[in-house]
Design brief:
Length: 315
């Protein structure tokens, strides 16, 4: 065996488990590792059980097996490059910038999206900023969530706004179209953590995890659906999506945390909606350098307006 092969120390929890899930569990803290990438390793012969390549990712590991994986092909992160994009700027001053992100636009380059992201476009804009300025994201939105993304231009402004966010002095309000009818208003207080078997997902947990709080208000309701305003008290990954789904009010179109509904005449528009119906609608904060209160709003996008009208919600 060459030095780029790694032996995985198996334990009782791996007995009878699919080999791709075993590797995901043991390598989940490695940058660039995902279940899809592991399955490609298996198909390419870069995973060995007792010296032989398993025939498929679903092959189950048994007690006493020797599991090895070749990890030398984990890709290295590359520095994002400036790229001219047509960005919808909602607000800009010498220190901050607010962009209205459309659904479908990736916020930051990743192994699967190295160009055409919001950050690529921001780096292009930054070419005209004063020396020493560079874009930094104050929070992110999922690819299929639309709305406001706040960007800072200097490190000290980013640090000040990060402190304000941690102290709950920044208001972040979202609009979501959900299945079901939540109470008029309430608070969801459920700790969240990464799914140990799929690091792309987040789950509610009662074993540690990160404290996570979302306040909500039902704005309108129709048969089977509601329009809800959510305010993030904490800002965890997928927080609103997971919290609403945990309360049995999944966001319409959420393929990860919702349930695929059969298409009927009454819910056809919702069942066919191609993304999670979630929009970062309003942001309010105090400008760190000037002290001025800034309120930014992004109107509900046309696809969500059309959905709301089709299912009888007033938006």
């Amino acid at each position: 065996m060459t030095s780029d092969w790694r032996t995985i120390s198996l334990d009782r929890g791996d007995d009878g488990v699919r080999v791709d899930l075993v590797l995901l569990r043991h390598l989940r803290r490695e940058k660039g590792v995902s279940r899809n990438r592991i399955q490609k390793w298996i198909e390419a012969g870069n995973v060995l059980i007792n010296g032989s390549a398993p025939p498929r990712p679903a092959w189950r590991v048994q007690a006493g097996d020797e599991l090895r994986v070749r990890v030398a092909d984990i890709p290295k992160r590359v520095r994002p490059q400036a790229q001219a994009l047509d960005l919808d700027i909602l607000y800009e001053d010498d220190d901050v910038l607010a962009v209205n992100k459309p659904a479908g636009l990736v916020v930051h380059p990743s192994f699967g999206n190295t160009s055409g992201t919001l950050m690529n476009g921001l780096l292009d804009l930054a070419r005209s900023w004063p020396g020493g300025s560079k874009p930094a994201l104050l929070g992110r939105l999922d690819k299929h969530t639309s709305g406001i993304v706040l960007v800072t231009k200097r490190g000290e402004i980013h640090a000040a706004l990060q402190r304000a966010m941690n102290a709950h002095r920044i208001d972040k309000d979202y609009l979501a179209i959900v299945s079901g009818k939540p109470p008029q208003r309430g608070t969801i207080d459920l700790a969240l953590d990464r799914d140990p078997w799929d690091r792309r997902r987040v789950t509610v947990t009662d074993r540690g995890g990160q404290p996570s709080v979302t306040k909500y208000e039902r704005l309108s309701a129709a048969t089977g659906f509601s329009l809800v305003r959510c305010r993030l008290i904490t800002g965890r990954t997928h927080q609103i999506r997971v919290h609403l789904a945990a309360k049995h009010w999944p966001i319409v179109g959420d393929a990860t945390y919702g349930k695929k509904a059969p298409v009927t005449g009454s819910n056809e528009a919702a069942a066919k909606f191609p993304r999670q119906a979630l929009h970062a609608w309003r942001l309010a904060f105090r400008q760190p350098r000037t002290g001025r209160e800034i309120v930014i709003e992004s109107p509900m996008p046309e696809d969500m307006k059309t959905l709301a009208a089709a299912i009888g919600l007033s938006a």
